[in-house]
């Protein structure tokens, strides 16, 4: 085991995989000598050079299209998109090409492509750089969607994604890059796609949370424990494939559930998880399914406004109490300015 930041776990996994496979390359904006928008790619350019760590113009469509074509001809490709908001620019390459080529070719063409996309708010980056958009891609068959919350999962899930043989969108929350944790030294350490992680055991309520919201849920757990409420936290880790069995088993145990994500509540992937629980686990529930997410508004630049729009620890606490008590959660106090 080695202590690593979340971003270091990603970088070292890329380094190990590139060292093992000369046909694996990385492409993106400023991923070379500059070391990536957030410094994630670091010194990889110095080790592997221009041919395999390729700086590209600011054209997300061209970047994804280049990587997609190369992946169909025997290479493996990693794309870095510094803000997931800009995935919208290259949607045709993703959902109309990458997601369908293996099916349309009868399996003759593989798309060994991982798109790393940074996401998330709480960093004052304003409306164009702060969204969480995984729900867009969970809706599309043919794409796998990965949302790690811990450094070891970042390493193991990224390696699994690179070895999967299908297009994967790998979402990295800006707020997690400096989180430190133990990461196995094994260059073959893999976390299987489609297997959830039990972050915290509990008996009173299941909280299904992803990415940064896992950490906020842990904070909520400490507050709730002081009031005698013991929550269980399940991190799906991958949204497609989704580990329904682990989620349903936890709900059967606690008989209450809250789903937490940073995306907007309306039509977020939390809605699908709630639907699965209602469809397959309604007999387990002793109270309503509660969801916590962003308010239905663009993410503001102003820190007080941003914090008002995005989910906070107190929102999780209120939702858990409401789920257990079978009532509507207390309203958050109205915004009164800085």
Automatic annotation (TrEMBL):
Keywords annotated in UniProt: Oxidoreductase, Thiamine pyrophosphate
Cofactors (names): thiamine diphosphate
Catalytic activity field: a 2-oxocarboxylate + 2 oxidized [2Fe-2S]-[ferredoxin] + CoA = an acyl-CoA + 2 reduced [2Fe-2S]-[ferredoxin] + CO2 + H(+)
Entries under SUPFAM superfamilies matching the protein: Thiamin diphosphate-binding fold (THDP-binding) (SSF52518), TK C-terminal domain-like (SSF52922)
MF annotations from Gene Ontology: 2-oxobutyrate synthase activity; pyruvate synthase activity
EC number: 1.2.7.11
Domain of life from the UniProt record: Archaea
One Pfam family in the UniProt entry: Transket_pyr
Subunit annotation: Heterodimer composed of an alpha and a beta subunit.
Protein name, entry field: 2-oxoacid oxidoreductase (ferredoxin)
